[in-house]
Amino acid sequence: MLKFLRRHALRKQPFPDAWLDVLQGRVAWYARLTPELQLRLQSRIQIFLREKTFIGCGGLEVTEAMRVIVAAQACRLELHHEPSHFPHCETIFLYPDAFVSTVTRMLPGGVIEQVPTVRIGESWHRGSVVLAWNAVEESAWAEWTGRNVVLHEFAHQLDNGSGTVDGVPVLRNAAAYTRWERVVNRALTRLRLQLSWGNVPIDPYAAQNPAEFFAVTTELYFEAPQVLRAFDPELLQLLEDYYGVFPVSDARAA
Ligand SMILES: [Zn+2]
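A: This is the predicted complex of the input protein with zinc ion.
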């Protein structure tokens, strides 16, 4: 109840001019939104920045502009439906650029191996998202590249909304879950087959598991929908129904 009242009060607060300058100058798609959607985004950014903690790593000093640019992109995912405000993400760690993370792997025979891996983003099941600032900044400005690390990691957080990261976000009803499973299973199976033939229609990382498939296809949905349409039109439609808008028509939707 306290959170509800606090969010309600935040929605009534004026959006700081300095934050607006950041949106207008450094977030490419912001200008395409209708005035109504711009206001909606602003109020969600205010809630996001009030509720999440940012921590600079590797010597990075987190500025107001960095926080706004991360928040804008995360909130874009929920701009057209009832927001969850990413309840499992409390802290965002920002590195200046790619960082090394240790991945734990189980080898045959039950041997556990720890492998250092270079990454630009990471989403933890409980509590945090880790991002490389240079990749975040570029993804806000350079549109239609098919890549966006913030959308990728916060898609994992949406996936996490049900309590498990399994490639299935919270959906409307039982029929929606059945449809999701059918469309995604078919598309993922076909992708793995295409990769085994040496054909790479989309980022092969999507073939790792259903969770990465959802995160990678979310990036494509917002940043290269024509690639997703060529890969699987039914999958494109599924994501359009889930996100509530076709990305290039951001400005028309309300
Ligand atoms: Zn991922």
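Residues 152, 156, 212, 215 surround zinc ion (CB under 6 Å). The chain has a mean pLDDT of 91.
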